[in-house]
Structure formats: structure tokens, C-alpha cells
Design brief:
single chain, about 325 residues, alpha/beta, 2 domains, two-stranded antiparallel sheet, about 45% helix, globular
Length: about 325
């Protein structure tokens, strides 16, 4: 009888997994269909989703308002509400723009996503040097996958795998790699970066480095008036490889149109004090977010951890 019960459990898990996989594939197929909608219709859908998320579902309202109030204690409730409204609208735009990237042509990207000073990397390529490019969840960061079309360097983008959803993972990989860049899982980032550096293949290593690490990380600093943990990976890679470190800034010109700027943070990061790379990165983020806060990803639970008492706050 015990054996029969175990077989029944296995059979149940199989069918549950089957329906989950089928559902994921249906959703991925729907996303592909949505990507072929014209922009004017896409933004009509975005306006509809904005109303649903903002006023019906109230998507992560507590998280968004708490993050905004803690990040901008000097702002009034009315100002916080105004930023939140703009964030919801922008969030819906970016969600659908990311889907649209699946089918966008090179001509469409050239019209809507402008790399203003990408030639800044040319001298490093000619010298056979790689660079580290630190970005953040601000404006439309996913469209930056087209940087490979404009760059001589091989572009490696570090990402967090989509767990338990192979269909969505493949969909996102198609978006990120269709122009020639390569996506590397975050757990392989340091090893792959060092291997490319030793092999003499100049790369741009792109990291969206404002994600939330475990609370046990040793890197805690004050960011947007709050004690904030940071992954140590970007700091370690920069110091071990001594690759120039740049900041990646996506600026919104108008709906569906962006421009990208690159700012050099350190020419020789191995020569600066420990933690200076991440401190400079956080400072640049604060500067940009404070100017136009509605374009940051406030729905992310960036500050869900509390700093352990035995870990000091760096400054």
C-alpha cells in the first residue's frame, strides 16, 4: 500500500508539472503575439493596465509608498503620491516595451533608443581592454541589449535566471541575445569575466548591480537615506581584473524614446581603496534617481533586509 501511495504522489506531481509547463508555454506564446502589436496599440494597452494596477489591484502599493517615503523623507504626501502615479504609468510602459523588444527591428531601435557616447569604449577595444559597465533598474534597461549592434567589444550581460519557468526564460533570452550579446547567469559572472580577461577577448561586462543580496553580505552602505546591502561581485571583478568601470544611464526623452550615456567611474579600479567602486556607483545612482525618481523600480523590495549588528556600515 505504501508503494501505491508513493506512485500516486509521483503521478500527481507529474501532471501538476505538466499543466504548469503548458500554462507557461501559453503565456510565452501570448507575449510573442503582443510583441507584434504596433506601438500606438501597445500604449493603449499600457494605459489600461495602469488603471488596473493602480486603482483596482493596487499592485504592491505598500511596498512602493514605503520605498518612496523612506527614500525621500523631505517630500510631502502629495509629492510622494504624484511620483507613485508616474511610476505606475512608466512601469506599465516598460513592461510592454520589454515584450515589444522580441520583434522590434533594428530600424525601430535606432529610432527609439540612442547610444549617445558609445565611442568612449573604442580606445579600450583598440588596446585589447575589457570594461565593466554598471547599470540599474531605471527607465528601460532591457532595451540596452542592442548595445552589441554599436559596440566592437563582445557584450556579456549578467542576469538572474527565471526559476521554474523555462518558456519565459527562453523568451527573455531571445530578447537579450538576438543582437549578438551573451547572457551569463549571475552565479557564473566572476569566473566568466576572469576567463575572458585572461583569454585576451575584450568584453563589456554589463551588470545591473542594484539587486538585493542576502542580509549576510558584508557590503552595507547608506543609499537613498536607508541602510542598503549590495552584492560584492562587481567590486571583486573590478579589482581582480583592473578593468575600467563605467556607469550606464538610460534617460527617457518621451514615451517610448530613450537615450543612453556612459560615465567613467574608475580607470584603474585596482588602485583605489576597497569599497570605493560600489560607493561611487551608489552615489551616481542617487544623483540620477533624485532628479527623476518616477523612473526607478520602486515595486522591488530593495530594503526587505535589516543589517546584522555584527556587520558595519561602510562610508
Amino acid at each position: 500500500m505504501t508503494g501505491i501511495n508513493e506512485l500516486a504522489k509521483i503521478d500527481k506531481r507529474y501532471y501538476e508539472g505538466f499543466w504548469k509547463r503548458l500554462g507557461n508555454r501559453v503565456v510565452a506564446t501570448l507575449l510573442k503575439f503582443i510583441s507584434y502589436l504596433p506601438f500606438w496599440l501597445l500604449y493603449l494597452c499600457s494605459d489600461f493596465f495602469y488603471f488596473i494596477l493602480r486603482y483596482i489591484i493596487r499592485y504592491r502599493k505598500k511596498v512602493i509608498y514605503t520605498n518612496l517615503r523612506n527614500s525621500f523623507p523631505e517630500k510631502s504626501p502629495g509629492e510622494i503620491s504624484s511620483i507613485a502615479n508616474k511610476f505606475y504609468s512608466h512601469f506599465c510602459d516598460v513592461f510592454l516595451e520589454t515584450i515589444k523588444a522580441y520583434s522590434m527591428s533594428a530600424r525601430q531601435f535606432d529610432k527609439r533608443f540612442h547610444f549617445r557616447n558609445i565611442e568612449i569604449f573604442d580606445k579600450y577595444y583598440q588596446q585589447g581592454k575589457s570594461v565593466v559597465l554598471l547599470g540599474m533598474h531605471y527607465n528601460n534597461w532591457e532595451w540596452s541589449c542592442t548595445i552589441q549592434r554599436k559596440s566592437n567589444h563582445q557584450v556579456l550581460g549578467i542576469y538572474n535566471p527565471v526559476r521554474g519557468n523555462e518558456a519565459l526564460e527562453k523568451f527573455m533570452m531571445k530578447i537579450r541575445e538576438r543582437w549578438g550579446s551573451k547572457s551569463i547567469p549571475v552565479y557564473k559572472s566572476a569566473r566568466v569575466a576572469i576567463e575572458f580577461n585572461r583569454g585576451g577577448n575584450p568584453i563589456i561586462l554589463g551588470l545591473i548591480a542594484d539587486q538585493t543580496p542576502p542580509p549576510t553580505t558584508k557590503l552595507w552602505m547608506t543609499f537613498l537615506h536607508q541602510e542598503t546591502p549590495f552584492f560584492s561581485g562587481p567590486e571583486k571583478i573590478a579589482h581582480r581584473t583592473n578593468q575600467p568601470v563605467f556607469f550606464h544611464h538610460v534617460r527617457k526623452i518621451k514615451r517610448g524614446v530613450y537615450e543612453v550615456f556612459f560615465y567613467k567611474l574608475f580607470e584603474n579600479p585596482a588602485e583605489v581603496k576597497e569599497k570605493e567602486v560600489l560607493l561611487a556607483y551608489a552615489k551616481k545612482m542617487e544623483e540620477i534617481i533624485s532628479q527623476e525618481p518616477q523612473y526607478y523600480l520602486w515595486s522591488h523590495r530593495r530594503w526587505k533586509h535589516k543589517r546584522p549588528e555584527n556587520i558595519p556600515l561602510i562610508s
